[in-house]
Write a structure and sequence with these properties.
Length: 587
């Protein structure tokens, strides 16, 4: 129950704030559809009485015209409102998509590497999808329920006036039938729970696998066979769940139908008896039969609406959970200026959440403003993690990181992020223009000068629309597909454009050819200028451009000094790595 309340509260409130008219329309439509069956309920008996009584043609025509006219007007109102509601509903769906995407982008970074959080995002997306029908689907059930409730009250009133015994029978029938329906719903909810996992897998096949990023691997590793088999296996599983539900529900459906038949037969006999005994007229006879059928439908409808509401709210509840996902990092509010900083790690240790292994182990290091530090070490030594800690993507498990003498946890998070311009190994370019990829929202940025600086002059000169050319072909047939090296240069231009006091290059030249790499190195100091720079690289020749080198090994800083100093340490890690690479290049 708390899930239904939470979903209705959150979804309705969010929608009402942005699209209040949506609910005005829904309430209006509910009133119209609720009134509709009562038009016939009250006018038809008058027509019947007229036919078997006075047979006044004029009155008959008037009554028939009134009935048809009112039905037409109400139907028109219903259709028009539905049309408007449908238009709103698409807009509302998009609105919730945006809210969710924004929330995903604003999540604390570490949650984006957290399996549970990632699953929650997926569940929230599917939960607001066709599983629940989103705000429109859920509010439909809510208002249908209200409508059926009002209708039921109306029919009960009519029946209780002329045939209270019939009402009593209806109550008993409804109670017994509800038991069957509840049992069926339980089976259906159980089946849905079993099916939701299979459905998620179908979602994966349907959407992820056809994504072009998988295309190369699927073709070259001949993965179609495995995919199709897996698809078949899941189809079989899905079918067996449906069969299970069908087999279990069948006797209950049968029982309900026979019970319903019994109720109908009783109603006709009883009401006919009243008419034969002249307790009621023929008009009232038809009115009672309609009211009885109407009441049955309204009650059946209510049960179905509640079941649907529970089911849909259960799915949509994942959205509520996701939007309320707790922050992973505490955030301070101390302002920080965009200027060169002194950075100090003091006995910093770190283990990734839900793991015990310290991937950074008691690291202490001080970087003066404007210093260029090269970070080297074997794979898995902790270099990238060191940078993630500096950028506050994670907080240290022990120790502290000071910027200008103050613990970085005290700074305002957004301003702190403005201090860094990183190019990560797995940087991402977007399917927007070259310019937008570099400057994001900064219209005044001279992207031509920036692309020239990183060696993209020829690339940009070859584009029809220069830096306004779109990347990739997602949205634009004429979009370009830059090579790995070109992409990396665009990412470097983006970092330079941000003009942050600390530049971070995590293996920034891995995808560059040796000449381009040499160009970047040669220009490195002029590119980064007087800013502080952290430079992770496997190619040790780059270290010569840096002031200091920190050699990471097993989460520690094993060696620290200038190139000249480290090169001379006999049997040192750096000396050995440098020697090995130098040999390779000489050979
Ligand atoms: P490097 O950059 O030196 O190659 P990393 O800092 O990326 O090393 O990784 C250090 C260690 O932390 C590795 O053993 C790696 O497997 C582990 N690691 C990296 N990222 C995560 C993560 N998100 N969760 C758990 N362990 C991680």
């Amino acid at each position: 129950m708390h899930k239904i309340i939470a979903v209705i509260k959150v979804l309705f409130k969010t929608t009402a704030k942005k699209y209040p008219f949506f609910f005005v329309l829904k309430i209006f439509r509910m009133l119209v559809t609720t009134a509709m069956p009562f038009i016939a309920l009250f006018i038809s008996p008058l027509i019947v009485d007229e036919v078997v009584g006075d047979r006044d043609v004029k009155r008959l025509i008037t009554l028939a015209a009134l009935l048809i006219g009112l039905e037409m007007v109400f139907q028109l109102l219903n259709d028009l409102t539905t049309n408007y509601i449908n238009r709103y509903s698409t807009r509302i769906e998009r609105y919730f998509d945006i809210l969710m995407s924004r929330h995903v982008m604003e999540l604390d970074f570490q949650l984006t590497e957290d399996k549970e959080a990632l699953e929650q995002i997926e569940k929230a997306r599917t939960g607001m999808d066709w599983y629940s029908g989103g705000v429109n689907g859920i509010s439909d059930q809510f208002f249908y329920f209200l409508s059926n409730l009002i209708k039921a009250a109306g029919f009960i009133t009519v029946i209780s006036v002329y045939a209270p015994i019939l009402l009593a029978v209806m109550v008993v029938y409804t109670a017994v039938n509800s038991l069957f329906v509840l049992k069926r719903n339980k089976i259906s909810i159980e089946a849905f729970a079993k099916l939701s996992k299979v459905n998620r897998l179908f979602g994966y096949f349907g959407w992820n696998i056809v994504d072009h990023r998988y295309a190369k691997d699927i073709r070259l590793y001949d993965a179609q066979g495995m995919m199709v088999n897996s698809w078949k296996e899941n189809t079989a599983k899905s079918n067996s769940h449906w069969k299970w539900q069908g087999d279990k529900s069948f006797p209950l459906i049968l029982a309900s139908e026979y019970l319903d038949l019994g109720r109908s037969i009783f109603a006709y006999f009883y009401v006919a008896l009243l008419a034969i005994r002249k307790v009621i007229g023929v008009g009232t006879f038809t009115q009672l039969i309609s009211a009885e059928t109407g009441l049955d439908n309204a009650i059946g409808g209510m049960i179905q609406n509640v079941t649907e509401l529970i089911k849909r709210c259960n799915y949509a509840y994942e959205y509520v959970v996701f939007m309320d996902y707790p922050e992973a990092l505490a955030k301070g509010n101390r302002p920080i200026e965009k200027k060169p900083h002194e950075i100090e790690f003091k006995h910093v240790s770190f283990a990734y959440p839900k793991t015990d292994r310290k991937v950074i182990d008691d690291v202490s290091i001080k970087i003066v403003p404007g210093e260029h530090l090269s970070i080297v070490g074997l794979n898995g030594a902790g270099k990238t993690t060191f940078i993630k800690l500096l950028c506050r993507l994670y907080d240290p498990t022990e120790g502290e990181i000071l910027v200008d003498g103050i613990d970085i946890r005290e700074y305002d998070y957004v301003s702190y992020m403005e201090q860094f311009a990183p190019v990560f190994q797995d940087f991402k370019l977007f399917a927007f223009s070259v310019k937008e990829n570099i400057a994001f929202t900064d219209d005044t940025a001279d992207t031509i000068a920036l692309t020239d600086r990183v060696g993209l002059h020829d690339f940009v000169a070859g584009l029809d629309k220069g830096t306004d050319t779109n990347l990739f072909k997602f949205f634009d047939e004429e979009g370009v597909e830059p090579s790995g090296g070109e992409q990396q240069k665009i990412a470097i231009a983006r970092a330079l454009c941000k003009d942050a006091p600390v530049v971070i290059l995590d293996e920034p030249t891995a995808a560059l050819d040796p000449i381009a790499e040499y160009e970047i190195y040669k220009q490195f100091n002029s590119l980064v200028g007087g800013k502080s720079a952290f430079y992770i690289s496997h190619r040790l020749s780059s270290c010569q451009f840096c002031d200091k080198i920190a050699v990471f090994s097993g989460g520690h800083i094993a060696e620290y000094g200038t190139h000249a100093e480290l090169e001379k340490i006999p049997g040192g890690i750096y000396a050995e790595m440098f020697e090995a690479q130098a040999k390779y290049y000489k050979n």
